[in-house]
Design brief:
Chain A is mostly beta strands and 114 residues long. In chain A, 0% of the residues lie in helices and 52% in strands. In chain A, strands 2, 4, 5, 9, 10 and 11 form a 6-stranded mixed beta sheet that branches. Chain B is an all-beta fold and 117 residues long. Chain B has strands at 5-7, 10-13, 19-24, 31-38, 42-50, 53-56, 65-71, 74-79, 88-95, 107-108, 112-116. In chain B, strand 7 and strand 8 form a beta hairpin. Chain B is globular, with a radius of gyration of 14 Å. At the A-B interface, strand 5 and strand 10 of A face strand 5, strand 9 and strand 10 of B.
């Protein structure tokens, strides 16, 4: 059972454009929604995270938009740069602070063309 | 801090052999997680520990897989006997949870790429 569905699988964006990755979840008990960034040969690293009490969180060029009623959240990368080329994973966890592990989406392979 | 350390980084073994993957979490972290990553299934949580005690091993695929955490600074994931379908990248992650209000960021190691022929 896939509890977090992520789309698209791959995405190509021109330098300077906006990259948008979407995720949908099923478990209404989820209360923590992070995005992880993974470069080839490396482990995932936390990029930005949100809790459902806010609808948007922005950190630099990265923004999470959260729609609790639709059970959807998305990552927006503004002014996308070639260095942003990586695989992005959305994730979710239940109360307990995520201590019971993260449920990951399948990932989006993002390529930023110069 | 050196971050989460995993060894070996690459492992190639023959079907039927025993494989042991090792992890050293970040000092002071009280949670340790083992994940498996494949193209088909993505990132899957296998098992996690809290203060060296296994809490949830429901993600462990079969009895061939076992994990231990003998102390706060070391954990192993063992596969015996190994099979070609076990080929994947195995990640260890750790986190520190001083309370429910804390941000549950997990810090991942570089992974072990396992190939079973």
């Amino acid at each position: 059972q896939q509890q977090v569905k992520q789309s698209p699988q791959s995405l190509i964006v021109q330098k300077g454009g906006i990259s948008i990755i979407n995720c949908a979840y099923e478990n209404t008990a989820f209360d923590y929604f992070p995005w992880y960034q993974q470069f080839p040969g490396k482990g995932p690293a936390l990029l930005i995270a949100i809790r459902p009490d806010v609808s948007e969180k922005k950190e630099g060029r990265f923004t999470i938009s959260f729609n609790k009623s639709a059970k959807q959240f998305s990552l927006h990368i503004m002014d996308s740069q070639p260095g942003d080329s990586a695989t992005y994973f959305c994730a979710a966890s239940t109360p307990g602070g995520g201590a019971d592990g993260l449920t990951f989406g399948k990932g989006t392979h993002l390529i930023i063309q110069p | 801090d050196a971050g989460v350390i995993q060894s070996p980084r690459h492992e190639v073994t023959e079907m039927g052999q025993e494989v042991t993957l090792r992890c050293k979490p970040i000092s002071g972290h009280d949670y340790l997680f083992w994940y498996r990553q494949t193209m088909m299934r993505g990132l899957e949580l296998l098992i996690y520990f809290n203060n060296n005690v296994p809490i949830d091993d429901s993600g462990m695929p079969e009895d061939r897989f076992s994990a231990k955490m003998p102390n706060a600074s070391f954990s192993t994931l063992k596969i015996q006997p190994s099979e070609p379908r076990d080929s994947a990248v195995y990640f260890c992650a750790s986190s520190f949870m001083p309370g429910l209000a804390a941000t549950p960021e997990q810090y991942f190691g570089p992974g072990t790429r396992l190939t079973v022929t």
